[in-house]
Design brief:
Blueprint: H1 3-6, H2 26-30, H3 44-47, E1 59-67, E2 72-83, E3 87-88, E4 95-96, E5 100-116, E6 142-158, E7 163-176, E8 179-195, E9 198-205, E10 210-214, E11 219-222, E12 225-232, E13 234-236, E14 239-250, E15 260-262, E16 265-277, E17 281-287, E18 293-300, E19 304-312, H4 316-319, E20 322-330
Antiparallel strand pairs: 1-2, 1-20, 2-5, 3-4, 5-6, 6-7, 7-8, 8-9, 8-10, 9-12, 10-11, 12-14, 13-14, 14-16, 15-16, 16-17, 17-18, 18-19, 19-20
Length: about 350
């Protein structure tokens, strides 16, 4: 039955954008989703659009995971292209920052094959009847999918030697049988390199709030979420050790579901660490914002990166654990180098 849609009793509510907070990519999940400062590839369109300006070549990525005993499928795909290159002004001999990138990303969260039993409990006149003595008409049962879609369009630019900025425009679409909702939102991101080994990041998702309008006449308001992060990089044991910190700051008055709150503002911290050995293999561990431990690993091939992550739920016997795998392809041909003619 379509009770989730039919039971909307408020025009504006909390958790409306929760499906967009799951995250994408095996690397990010492996470090506890503390990724706002570390994002520097095609998946930055989700984590922090500013990080997309740091790619040097076109990239393509896909990611898949299954949740709650394979009940929910969560898929992601993205493509991004760098454009322009930083130059030296021949008159002033000053560096002009023209490096920019464009990207498109897709997210689908779906529960497939949900039975709709409303017609099975109808009498000869088509009126719905719920009677224990009545035998349902199993042939009248139909099936539908509950799907949430998000499409991101990303633009990012290097503003100075240390500062990268970016923005998303995103289209949101909910489908639940004959019911559907649509909304448009905006994200704003920034990354600042304090030093070559210390990066700060911020991503204000749904910056202007996002209104999702349903064909039932009800509406949902997605409040802004501010993702903050810091990444530290150290060379050690022929590899790179990267501790990361982050927190999600929400403005929905989550007094009971958040780790900490200050009035209507809530805070959900994350932390993680990655060790990348000679740019060949990486191992990761983290603690995400819903209190789950995460681990992961990655393999770097010439053009392909394969990342896997595992998240353990607190009630694993009931909800099942999460396994995520992602692939990232980098087109490293000379023809595609940023700024090439």
């Amino acid at each position: 039955m379509l009770l989730p849609v039919l039971s909307f009793s408020q025009t504006f509510g909390k958790y409306s954008g929760e499906f967009m907070s799951i995250g994408v990519g095996g690397r990010a999940l492996g470090v506890g989703s503390a990724y706002a400062a570390l994002a520097n590839d095609v998946m930055a369109g989700y984590w922090n659009p500013a990080g997309l300006a740091r790619i040097e070549y076109p990239q393509i990525a896909i990611s898949h995971d299954e949740r709650f005993g394979n009940l929910i499928n969560y898929d992601f795909a993205s493509v991004a292209f760098p454009s322009g290159a930083n130059t030296i002004n021949p008159e002033t001999q000053e560096k002009e920052y023209r490096a920019e990138s464009f990207g498109v990303s897709f997210i689908r969260l779906g529960v497939d094959g949900i039975p709709d039993t409303r017609a099975a409990w109808a009498d000869s006149n088509g009126n719905r009847v719920y009677d224990e003595a009545m035998r349902p008409d199993y042939s009248a049962i139909t099936y539908f999918n509950w799907t949430d879609w998000v499409i991101y369009g990303t633009y990012a630019k290097q503003y100075s030697e240390d500062l990268f900025i970016g923005a998303n425009v995103k289209l949101i679409r909910h489908n639940a049988g004959e019911f559907h909702g649509t909304g448009i939102g905006f994200d704003l991101g920034m990354q600042y390199m304090v030093t070559n080994s210390f990066v700060l990041g911020a991503n204000l998702q749904d910056a202007t709030t996002t209104l999702v309008s349903w064909n039932t006449g009800t509406n949902e308001l997605i409040a802004p979420t501010l993702k903050l992060g810091a990444a530290f990089m150290f060379d050690i044991f022929d590899g790179k050790l990267t501790p990361v910190l982050g927190t999600d700051v929400r403005f929905e008055n989550r007094r009971f579901s958040a780790v900490a709150n200050l009035g209507p503002v809530s805070f959900d911290p994350q932390a993680g660490i990655e060790f990348d050995y000679k740019n060949l293999i990486a191992v990761r561990a983290g603690y995400n914002d819903i209190g789950n431990l995460t681990i992961g690993a990655g393999i770097h091939l010439r053009k392909l990166d394969v990342d896997y992550a595992f998240a353990k739920f607190n009630a694993a016997d009931q909800l099942g654990n999460t396994h995520r795998i992602s692939l990232r392809l980098t087109l490293q041909e000379d023809h595609y180098r940023r700024g090439a003619e």
